[in-house]
């Protein structure tokens, strides 16, 4: 192999693949992004890079930021290569790569978030965006309201000038902007939350109100929080990705692999301006809710349909789950008979057409999206993605048999052993409580449903509870594969053409 080229501004012209054609030294920042993971670099940073390649958005470069100690490692890697990233597109037709350069700085990680606050207070910063995961917004689990009692929020309210969280830093930066006579920035969540802009507004304004009610009113009246829907599968980086990037002749300490599909839908609510993202494929819509409902329910809830049984059976990746005949048929049946019944069409897709797209994406064997990653934090993902669908099905008097099976498989996974006897390692912030409930539910299924922080009033729904009890008892008696086969075999003659998933593999 030829000598590897270490990523740097000076080395860009040596690269034999697509790379920044713009003068990165002339870029000026307009965005601070908190949570610089693989998804951000494969998605938001890529869209901005594409604009810059067209000679636009030169004053909208990204300053990266983090608030947790582990963010420092990513900062070190990117700082050493001038914040450049190699994106590797994994498509069965062709694997390709490009280097993007829309990030120009990464702030140091500090206990008091001083550098982050100072950067967000600068008038040039017009957007602060976040990917802090769906569980990172300090939501009270049963109501999804603001959790003012969380120790982090209590601390930030008592120490508003030296907060420990991203939201506390945003509030302090907004206080400084207001005091200097400057307007606010736009708060742009890029996390997989229904109404993510509304959730971000709830967290920021309620936290501000704990220490400065007048500032909270100013934020509510002047700042904008557009809802958005984001979509691109970008697996965690490991040895495979490092080997891949070397095949392109590049020494990159933090490469990102991703699928070919990308989608970003945003409300037109930007109080301080925005890049012309529509030029590079971003959709601006007044009905983001319809797009995010389709994506969160079919894709994100669909991930939970696959991941828990995948763990129980010892499968490594989501594509392996889709290659398993029984799991693929179960996935199609739950989606076609229950999940898609709660999804409205959008201009680009009808629900079953979007389901076809998701099946193809999940089945891509080049995307090494691990079952463990997808199953992580089920105590947030099931209430966030799966249970709202189950609730809607119950309200409409429709079947919840498949969704009850999904929940039973989650309970089976949380017991902590696979069917081959191996141990499932802790994979949830509340693993001990989940495992305790799952072990007790083996003999008394209702114990699982009595986890109020997860199920709330759903535990009292007779149709759901009965189906859940029956499925969990059968799983322990017969095994997961046999139960899935039982479920798939109940397909009605009328629906059978929709459910021939195995014929599509």
UniProtKB/TrEMBL annotation:
UniProtKB keywords: Oxidoreductase
SUPFAM superfamilies tied to this protein: 6-phosphogluconate dehydrogenase C-terminal domain-like (SSF48179), NAD(P)-binding Rossmann-fold domains (SSF51735)
Mannitol dehydrogenase C-terminal domain sequence ranges: 287-475
Domain named Mannitol dehydrogenase N-terminal: residues: 30-278
Class of the enzyme per the UniProt entry, highest EC level: oxidoreductase
Superkingdom as given in the UniProt entry: Bacteria
Enzyme Commission code(s) on record: 1.1.1.-
Keyword Oxidoreductase attached: yes
Pfam families to which the protein is assigned, alphabetical: Mannitol_dh, Mannitol_dh_C
Gene Ontology molecular-function annotations: oxidoreductase activity
Listed PANTHER family: MANNITOL DEHYDROGENASE 2-RELATED (PTHR43362:SF1), MANNITOL DEHYDROGENASE DSF1-RELATED (PTHR43362)
Record protein name field: Mannitol dehydrogenase family protein
Native organism: Lutimaribacter marinistellae
